[in-house]
Automatic annotation (TrEMBL):
<dbReference type="InterPro" id="IPR004870">
    <property type="entry name" value="Nucleoporin_Nup155"/>
</dbReference>
<keyword id="KW-0539">Nucleus</keyword>
<dbReference type="InterPro" id="IPR042533">
    <property type="entry name" value="Nucleoporin_Nup155_C_1"/>
</dbReference>
<dbReference type="InterPro" id="IPR042537">
    <property type="entry name" value="Nucleoporin_Nup155_C_2"/>
</dbReference>
<dbReference type="GO" id="GO:0006606">
    <property type="term" value="P:protein import into nucleus"/>
</dbReference>
<dbReference type="GO" id="GO:0036228">
    <property type="term" value="P:protein localization to nuclear inner membrane"/>
</dbReference>
<dbReference type="InterPro" id="IPR014908">
    <property type="entry name" value="Nucleoporin_Nup133/Nup155_N"/>
</dbReference>
<dbReference type="GO" id="GO:0044611">
    <property type="term" value="C:nuclear pore inner ring"/>
</dbReference>
<dbReference type="GO" id="GO:0017056">
    <property type="term" value="F:structural constituent of nuclear pore"/>
</dbReference>
<dbReference type="InterPro" id="IPR042538">
    <property type="entry name" value="Nucleoporin_Nup155_C_3"/>
</dbReference>
<feature type="domain" description="Nucleoporin Nup133/Nup155-like N-terminal">
    <location>
        <begin position="58"/>
        <end position="433"/>
    </location>
</feature>
<dbReference type="Pfam" id="PF08801">
    <property type="entry name" value="Nucleoporin_N"/>
</dbReference>
<comment type="similarity">
    <text>Belongs to the non-repetitive/WGA-negative nucleoporin family.</text>
</comment>
<keyword id="KW-0813">Transport</keyword>
<dbReference type="Pfam" id="PF03177">
    <property type="entry name" value="Nucleoporin_C"/>
</dbReference>
<dbReference type="InterPro" id="IPR007187">
    <property type="entry name" value="Nucleoporin_Nup133/Nup155_C"/>
</dbReference>
<dbReference type="GO" id="GO:0006405">
    <property type="term" value="P:RNA export from nucleus"/>
</dbReference>
Amino acid sequence: MAGRILDYLEHDRLQADLINKLKYEPQQETLISGINDRDYPDLSSLGVQEISILRHHAIPDELRDQLNQMQSNVSMGLFPEISRIWMTIDSDLFLWNSKTNADLAYFDGITSTILKVDLATPKPGFFPQNIHKLLVVATTTDILLLAVGFLDGTTRHPIFSAIPAYNDVDIFIVPQPTFKLSLDGLIINDLCCTSNGRIFFCADDCLYELDYHETMFYGRQCKKINHSKSLLYSLVPAISIFTTKDTMQQLAIDNSRNILYVLTHKGHIQVFDLGVDGRVTSKFSTFYFEQTQHECLLSCKVDASFFAKLVYLSPILCTESHYVYFEAITSKGVRIYFTCLEDADFGTSKNLQESVRPRTIRIIHIRFPPESQPFTLLRQFSVYSVLRSNETTIMALGPGDSETPLWAMSAANFASSRELQENLTSLNIRGVIWDMADISEDVLFKFPAEPQIARVRPLILARQHINSILKYHVLTSEGIYTLVQNTPLETFHHIITQFGSESKPLQLFSRLHGNLEICVMSLMIICSDSKSDASIRTNAVRIFFTFGGEPQSVYRNPHENPRNIHGNVLEYSPMNASIADITSFRSPLRASTPIGLANRSYNVQGSPAFDENSVIGNLQVRPSHRHDSLFLYFSRIVLDIWQRNMCFRRRDNGQLCSAISIDELDTTIARIGAFRKAVDENALISLSSPQHFMNGGNVTTSNFVRNVEPAHARDSAAYEQEKQSLLELYDTIILSHEILFLWQILIEHQFHVILALLPPPIIEQLTSYTLLDLVHKYDTVCVDLITCVVKHYMGDDATTSAIADKLRSVCPTLFSSDDAMVLKATEYLHRARIMAVSKERDQLLSEALSILRKSIQKINLQNICDLLQKARFFDGIVELALARAEKDDAKKLALTAYKKHAETANQLVREAKNRREIAYRCITDLLDWLYDRTHAMTTDVGLNPALAKSELLRTIKLVLTSDDELANVSVFRWILDHNMEDLLLKERHRFFETFLHHEIEDLQNDRYLELLWKYYEKNENYISAAKLLLQLAEKPSVQTLQQRIAYLSHALMCVQSAPETKTNLELKQEIQDKLDVAQIQAQTKEALEFEVGQRITGSNISIEELNQRLFTVSELYDRFANPFNLAHIKLAILACAGHYEREIVENVWVDILKKELRPFERNEESAEQSKRRIASVLKNLSTQYSSMLKFYPIEMILRELLMFSFRFTQPEWLPELCKLARISHATLLNVINNQYRVVDPFWKQNKRAQQFIINLVINIFEDFVADPSKLPPNERKALKGTSLDFLSFLMMDLHTDGFNSGTASQKLRLLEGQIQRII
């Protein structure tokens, strides 16, 4: 039944969509309206004017003097969201309260003439909490953003929280502009701000956005973005030659769909899509004025002057229609309705922002203004200002002298009409109109966060019990006028008061709204306690029964849809309309199959409370209007809270607060209470014939009349079914009433303190619960809330008794006998708590546990477990928690979902899982408490640390030996959270290995992998342990590279401990290879860390990457070694990969030598230091690549060093370096010999180079002859032969070239003799 109320709420929403009234059908010609008398019916015969002028406030006297001094420009406007009027006079800005005409704020810090002003919402995080709005002020030179705050009217302190009523607070403007942006010569035509804080403006033919943001280096910045012209226009100015400018004159934002509309001076309409989240901007398309005029004239064939000019665009929010997007209004008052959806989109659900993105721009309906004929205008006028608010459109007409005519057109009295009908009210307003705004209390609507879109809001007819009078502000040059619009309820009230319940105006009014709505409005008056309604209450009751009718059973065709009453089609008539009639209006939310307009008919369908099961044989049950009106009125009472979250958590302190204010709660309780009282006192749900009352009988029945036989036997089933439906409704009314009373008690007794007594999971669930949820789950949630209230005052007998009495008084359904038994068990626990250990105490605890087990699903488990804990009855906590988990999930849905790793999208599974978690939380909370006591410095009475540890282990064992696998899982997780895994590895637990596999599959958490490989290693399953370690090493995570290498090393040890099978050897080789690459990766990381010290850009980021995962040799080369020119790493990678190409390897060695020699070249170290460092590098690399000599090309290395030594050092530098690097003189001499004699003629042709070679070899020969015995015989013999050969060649060369160096020749001859003598 609680969910059935949603059907009635949905009924109101479905008939509210404007598309139904426009009679649009896909793939048909554009329809027109407004040219027939029935489009604008004359309601003057009702005797009540719908819209009238309530009051007028002149412009404040302080501003009149300022106006007289005006030099160049004045403008005015309304900010209804903050109840303020604004006026600019030249460069001065004024704001004042639109309700009180006071609180005049003055800002004169602007030097240029102000052209436009708008109000923006601050972006989150940019401003302090006392800044609520931003004033966007456009001048002739700049745009300024001024911060706006409000002061408490009493304390004069800044307000930091949300402001419920801006009428009662004072405004202040921060003097210094927050942002200021130069316009660079642009003149702004219009401003527009979105609900998420974006600011748009137009100038010339371009749409701009003022974007303020914060950067890392430059702080807060502000810039303008051109959304109309791309970069191509600035790069190729010639493009503008082929385009003509069309000035933008109006911007209109649809915050419900995130779409921006632009109207240009020529009448073109541009559509900009702001995206699903409202944070992007892209131009979708343009609908040219010629298209508009052509299509309208083609459809209407009327005087072209009707469509001479478009003057206004008005977005139609998704709260009014999911399918109609906006309307364009011509200067002659013609309203042209557009959609941005394709025909295929009609009939599909529009619940997500993605589904309402613009796909096209099409005209779907044209509506002519009042006082127009099909082909000509009756009088000359021009519309220059328009206000559209839901079902009311107000147009300001011109030209006028001292007054402006207003057309106020409202569809509020035609909710049941199948086409768009409006009542016209003509008014005259003094002065020129500057702005108009709706100031009704429920007009400001907060749209849901993306990706959802707001639902269509019910019509005024469905909301009139909340606000029976609607108001509008009209700002003119003579001040501000307040217009008032009577809702149908107010009109109904006037008719009954002035003309009576059997008057002709009432008959006319009933034809407008139908019997169902007449019954609903009668209910509103019957339930009202106002004095004005008291005098007509009797008439309202009579009307309710007169129009309420009776349920009927009608025959149907057995081959027909059971939702139809019978084979014949019932033509719609407002006099017999019920929900069944009205919901038959075709809505695109329900059907996608087109229905021809020419042959449109309406099948009378079942009420939302009567589904297909309401078929008895060949009879279809049709509920009475009385039945439907009772359901409908209750759904409207709870309209705003039925699907709203009941509480929320404050951001500043995390406290839980009621989402329903105490005033709103009192109002709703009063309305439901009045409804309940009216039903009882007037027997509104009585199934007896209303004839008794209509004949003047006095109705005093306070309960249902349940056993009255209907007049016709055929209708007995219909009466019985309606009776059952109404009984369920009455139960829902009672539950809703009591739940709201309970909520009121919670608020009155420190809401956040009482709710803090709930277990955290229940608290989190409660933050998402609606009133519908509480009614649906009253037997669990409400019991928990009541228990917390009682627990809060436990020990204070007087207060507890008073609370219990009040609960029994206002919540008798919620506080039952079972609750009393639970309360008795609670008292037993309190008594046992203060008793000494004894047999009597144990008996009390046992008896309390027995009572609690019988009512296990009624108790507040958390509170009971708290009492058991204080009584030191730990076994009872475990027993109750396991019993509750079993009861709450008797079908083991949560366990099945856990084993299958299933998502909890299924509602039943999700609920079962949540209930089990709540039960297990009692056990883990107990373990937390015992754990803390094992480490406590102080000792609780009767529980020292040793005893606490014993009880902790005992409780753990009690759970782990149970058959509840999910309870085991909860305790496993608790143990791991407290780093007690040794407790689990010490002995086998039957669910532990399964648990580890499950957590690894679900979470991929390294800790569970660690536990599993340790588990395998302990059980000598070495291969599984090695594979897990390999997986850990390769897994991307936050662990360090050294940890990955450690994993690989440990994996290698494990696989070495396993038998040497072929598979194991392959795994061993794989691990060894990965370990080798990982060590190169470590060398790379070390090299990059050195580069960080050298301030190489990008090194920090690369170091982080090297820690995040293992790389392949190719990745190490391409992403690190090559970009950062890490020559040592390149060489290691080439060697590890076994990739040898002589040119590549030699190039790498050139890079190595250049890097090592660079400090000497830069004079950062001496030749001696450089020699020793390079020798050390060569020695290390020769050792590293001793088994791969091709990656250590010694001849190439010596060639490079030979040239370097020639250029920068003395001849002895290279032989000494070779000696330190353990490079033999024979190797060096071979390289020098080859270079001098064969490879490079430079050494012979350049005298200095030749002298260097001579000195170098002399140094080598002298070292050789000084101690030839230090070389092995073979090397000595080879070096001797090479030396003598090279000496001979050198001396011959010297003689041939006439080299004049007697000293050198002598040394060479001397050395030749000494070498010849070496044995």
